[in-house]
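// run 5 | inverse folding | seed 20
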């Protein structure tokens, strides 16, 4: 059996192997870029919720804001929570919309390149099929022009024509697998953020209702009967 190098197989596919080569490089670049992005950005929000709840329990809104501001660059969940803390004094319905908008921006940033992966997953096999059809046309033309036709000539033309289909399917499988895995990460993050924001929204609403929304006030215990708190205890 004759052994073919990768370059030989590439030449067999003809001109349609060039767009497939571009698609493969494009897919690989998007996957690598997204992998680096997700590795750099921390997607966990449980630790943020616990820490912010600790600040809210003492009414230290300024501390919560500073804590989230320090993490906003590297931890995506901190951005949405920071928007909630910064705009804590607005009505609950408006605060909810502001948090949703901030979370949507984070998710939109996470999904950068996803549309291209979907397009590449669709275009690659179609380009491969187109190359195969073109190759089959050339193979049958050669058969029609040949004086002595045998099975070897027919088989040779067909398997050379199918090379583009194989490469197109490989690229499509890689693109769709990457898209499915990355989408799962985004969906998990969105679900965790929804729960965390809902929990913290209740705490902030309770603080606002108690009139303790100012950053310089703490949640002090209620005074005992006939007890008067000094001014220093409120500052």
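// decoded
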């Amino acid at each position: 059996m004759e052994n073919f190098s990768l370059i030989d197989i590439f030449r067999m596919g003809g001109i349609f192997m060039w767009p497939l080569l571009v698609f493969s490089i494009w897919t690989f670049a998007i996957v690598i870029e997204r992998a680096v992005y997700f590795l750099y950005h921390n997607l966990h929000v449980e630790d943020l919720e616990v820490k912010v709840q600790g600040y809210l329990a003492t009414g230290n809104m300024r501390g919560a804001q500073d804590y989230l501001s320090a993490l906003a660059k590297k931890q995506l969940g901190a951005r949405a929570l920071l928007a909630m803390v910064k705009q804590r004094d607005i009505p609950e319905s408006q605060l909810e919309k502001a948090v949703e908008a901030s979370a949507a921006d984070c998710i939109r940033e996470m999904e950068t390149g996803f549309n291209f992966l979907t397009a590449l997953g669709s275009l690659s096999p179609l380009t491969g099929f187109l190359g195969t059809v073109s190759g089959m046309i050339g193979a049958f033309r050669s058969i029609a022009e040949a004086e002595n036709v045998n099975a070897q000539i027919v088989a040779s033309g067909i398997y050379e024509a199918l090379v583009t289909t194989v490469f197109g399917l490989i690229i499509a499988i890689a693109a769709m697998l990457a898209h499915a895995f990355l989408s799962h990460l985004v969906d998990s993050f969105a679900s965790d953020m929804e729960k965390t924001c809902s929990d913290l929204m209740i705490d902030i609403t309770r603080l606002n209702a108690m009139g303790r929304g100012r950053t310089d006030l703490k949640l002090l215990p209620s005074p005992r009967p006939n007890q008067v708190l000094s001014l220093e205890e409120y500052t």
